[in-house]
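[audit] Reproducing an earlier prediction to check determinism. Same input, same settings, fresh worker. If the tokens differ from the archived copy the diff job will pick it up downstream; this log only records the rerun itself.
[audit] input (201 residues):
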Amino acid sequence: MKKFFLILSIVISHFSLSLAQSDAKSVLDKCAAKVSAKQGITADFRMESVQYGNTSGTIAVKGKMFHATTPVATMWFDGKTQWTYLKKNNEVSVTTPTESQLQALNPYNFINMYKKGYNYTMTTSASAFNVHLTATDATRKVQELFITIDKNGYTPKEVKMRQGTKWTLFVIDHLKAGNLADAEFQFSSKDFPTAEVIDLR
């Protein structure tokens, strides 16, 4: 009889864990659908990072492409190439960023990450879903994420990620759908005629 109850409790625990995983993934899927709108989205953000510093600005996202503007720099990423304009130096660096670099710069990059290689748990508050992701593979650059998702609109409010022992926090506000042209995610020399372009690819 004891063995029966032990097996039953293991089955119930496994079922509860599977259900929690399914619920968390369902919430993430709905959030990703909002962020992945074909026409693109725009938002304000604030970043706090020991590794990359603190900053705030605006960001536009369309698929894997993004365009971010801060008081110090402007970045464009068209899915392959990244351009970073530093106002102080009037220079544009052209690079092909790594997955790790993209994860540190784009708060919405989690929509390309969570579907493979992570386990999920989720808690809820009155206004938000709080999803905790942990990597199943020790080689993943981002080992842990906390994503806070608004219950009403399934939009992300905070994304906190750990690379090694270092955390980066993004706080996101005023997210709205846009009608963004692909050209917005590429650097245009016409807009910065005096800038020095340094190709580091």
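[audit] rerun output stored. Observation attached for the diff report: Helices lie at 2-35, 99-105.
[audit] end
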